[in-house]
């Protein structure tokens, strides 16, 4: 921690603020926090440090939106997400940081393109109805993979919920339960790999207030946002995050 400059702490605080906002208003913004933390801390340790803050944000999101979840959708996603988590763990063991970053960026851009295509066809709502298992398997697998590799599952699942035409509170409630369960499931892996250290936990302790401030800001924002504006922001943040990951990947 003594190696971190004042500028580094400022960036981490901004990243923690973004975590709070992403949990209660703009899930697609979470990837920006991933990028910030990875630019300040060693890549693998940044993932574990950020994971704890994400769990704090998940708890706040559950307090706010726990009654608005669509449980049939969560149950439908579960098997694919587990597969994605396992594939992601295997990929982490084989790929270097550059390939991880590029792969996630390409997946996000493809998911955005596919979701926009669904919206143009007017078939997005079928994702949560009869015949939606294929889409749930695809999005769920990608969501599990990207969240395991880099805590970047938010944009993927945001595209799924947007394509399914969830209204804002149903979107945020379903996302809150989804990531609370998934992030807690990832915690033993972080501990077992030795990525969650006393030093990283101390950094988390100092950044928790920023997460809570961001969560309160996000809750106020979500209550005043129109559905079309909300969806547009989710799309834009996902594309920006994907392009940032793609063009900043090490050569």
From TrEMBL:
<keyword id="KW-1133">Transmembrane helix</keyword>
<feature type="transmembrane region" description="Helical">
    <location>
        <begin position="175"/>
        <end position="195"/>
    </location>
</feature>
<keyword id="KW-1003">Cell membrane</keyword>
<dbReference type="InterPro" id="IPR052017">
    <property type="entry name" value="TSUP"/>
</dbReference>
<feature type="transmembrane region" description="Helical">
    <location>
        <begin position="45"/>
        <end position="65"/>
    </location>
</feature>
<protein>
    <recommendedName>
        <fullName>Probable membrane transporter protein</fullName>
    </recommendedName>
</protein>
<feature type="transmembrane region" description="Helical">
    <location>
        <begin position="229"/>
        <end position="247"/>
    </location>
</feature>
<feature type="transmembrane region" description="Helical">
    <location>
        <begin position="100"/>
        <end position="118"/>
    </location>
</feature>
<dbReference type="Pfam" id="PF01925">
    <property type="entry name" value="TauE"/>
</dbReference>
<comment type="similarity">
    <text>Belongs to the 4-toluene sulfonate uptake permease (TSUP) (TC 2.A.102) family.</text>
</comment>
<keyword id="KW-0813">Transport</keyword>
<dbReference type="InterPro" id="IPR002781">
    <property type="entry name" value="TM_pro_TauE-like"/>
</dbReference>
<keyword id="KW-0472">Membrane</keyword>
<feature type="transmembrane region" description="Helical">
    <location>
        <begin position="201"/>
        <end position="222"/>
    </location>
</feature>
<keyword id="KW-0812">Transmembrane</keyword>
<feature type="transmembrane region" description="Helical">
    <location>
        <begin position="77"/>
        <end position="94"/>
    </location>
</feature>
